[in-house]
Amino acid sequence: MNTIKTKTCSSCESSFSCGDISEESKCWCNDFPPIFNMSEGGDCLCPVCFKEACEDKIDAYVETLTPQRALKNKAISLPKQEKLIEGIDYYIENGNYVFKPWFHLKRGACCGNDCRHCPY
């Protein structure tokens, strides 16, 4: 049975729905990369604050990578996400999708297309 809870964001204090994982459905936050440890503390964040926290953490991680370190990065070993997330995997510029470093890191190698944000 799926249980939906109303929570208060620990960052902006807005109310939001938080769903427990069950076989029928799962919480919205499970659509994001699993990059946070439960031991890092803090309570749940609303969708807006959670997305911002993911973007910040990923951006900070990407800044530490060299092309050599990118070949053995964390993103490759994480469970594959079914959908792309705007702001994390890509942004839209002049109607075109521009893939961010995280998207490329998940792929695991350079595609050879001279992508703007290729970490390799």
UniProtKB/TrEMBL annotation:
Pfam family of the protein (one): DUF5522
Alphabetical list of InterPro entries matching this protein: DUF5522
Protein name in UniProt: Cysteine-rich CWC
Lineage of producing organism: Bacteria, Pseudomonadati, Bacteroidota, Flavobacteriia, Flavobacteriales
